[in-house]
Write a structure and sequence with these properties.
cobalamin biosynthesis, six-stranded parallel sheet, Precorrin-6x_reduct, Rossmann fold, Precorrin-6A reductase, precorrin-6A reductase activity, oxidoreductase, binds NADP nicotinamide-adenine-dinucleotide phosphate, alpha/beta
Amino acid sequence: MRVLLLGGTAEARALAPRLHPDVDVISSLAGRVPDPALPVGAVRIGGFGGVDGLRRWLRDEKVDAVVDATHPFAATITAHAAQVCEELGLPHLVLARPAWDHGDAIVVTSDTEAAKVVAEQEYSRVFLTTGRSGVGAFVHSDAWFLIRAVTAPDSDRLPRRHQLLLSRGPYDYAGEYALMREHRIDALVTKNSGGQMTRAKLDAAAALDIPVVMVDRPPLPPGVTTVGSVAEAVEWVGGIDAETM
Ligand code: NAP
């Protein structure tokens, strides 16, 4: 049985070795970051060329099922996979790590709305962790930003006053606490990515009484089968495997 595993996340890297080599897994990465952490087994890198490209690729490669373990904010590839799998009648699963509790955070639905909240609340020293693609919404902000991202945003997308911190998680509580204190942060802006790798910033912000602005997840396509853990995804693939044997 051949499974396309849409990845770019820790969950996808954890799932691949749980399936390989019994299942013929091909992991797919978007190719956004240089020198990505690679999962075991076969890997392909780069976009498929939209819905049509993905449909063609799945047919050409004789894929039997698709597991979408992309990041909860990777909404385009998730929509494409849902649409094409439905059209082709392919078993399709979304592995979405559980969201964080909002707690006392100010919840918004976009980076643009988050930027509005920063202006309205007059935050002045913001820890911005919404990733490379989210930074552009803050370009006209008067606040100072500590921007943490895996790869540098385009220079014309950066706010006037900022410091760039290029790094990749996981992050721990002590480090996040020290970082926010050192930079006298007065607000944390984050996506609701979920998972343990980057949640320490929320605990550190709570301890330091720093308000949090949280961008909520985009909705999943209607009707998709979803699980929240790697173990459940392994079980789901096992179920399909049994059906096709
Ligand atoms: P996106 O907006 O949903 O996707 C944009 C385009 O990138 C897709 O239409 C597709 O191109 C291509 N693509 C995305 N994921 C792909 C994959 N796994 N394999 C092959 N092509 C892929 O996605 P994004 O937000 O740019 O994220 C890109 C990747 O980075 C995802 O795989 C995701 O898991 C990972 N990631 C994203 C975030 C985030 O915050 N968004 C954080 C950590 C990791 P075509 O239309 O040409 O097929």
